[in-house]
Amino acid sequence: HTSIIVHKDEFFYGSGGISSCAPGGTLLGPPDSVVDLGNTEVTEEIFLEYLSSLGESMFRGESYHLFEHNCNTFSNEVAQFLTGRKIPSYITDLPAEILATPFGQALRPLLDSIQIQPPGGNTFSRHNGQS
């Protein structure tokens, strides 16, 4: 699970679409590690409009795919918008590395059917930032 913390909230993507919570507020708890990607000049208002646009286009819940369009894809996209920096490749490359193993290939049919939505967040909505 990866997410972006910006303007005092944590934003992430799963099979339910874009969601938010207080930092570390999903049932997954606090992160195992945090990568500081820097600061942003993007205002909260512009950021929320951007998220709304993403939620209506690229990051709808039904577009989620565990290996090809996931929380890493979302975090990378948002990080580039906010800071011009990508998240580290050791994170974005992990799904492909798993699928390159015989074990990953054997499990792929099962894993392709999994829809992940970390519990504890609020689905993002355009009206007030959260719902």
UniProtKB/TrEMBL annotation:
It is an enzyme of class 3 (hydrolase). Its EC number is 3.1.2.22. GO terms for biological process: protein modification by small protein removal; proteolysis. It comes from the Eukaryota. Signal peptide: none annotated. The keyword Hydrolase applies. Keywords: Hydrolase, Protease. It catalyses: S-hexadecanoyl-L-cysteinyl-[protein] + H2O = L-cysteinyl-[protein] + hexadecanoate + H(+). InterPro entries: PPPDE_dom, PPPDE_sf. One of its GO terms (molecular function) is palmitoyl-(protein) hydrolase activity. Residues 1-112 form the PPPDE domain. Belongs to the DeSI family. This is palmitoyl-protein hydrolase. It comes from Pedionomus torquatus.
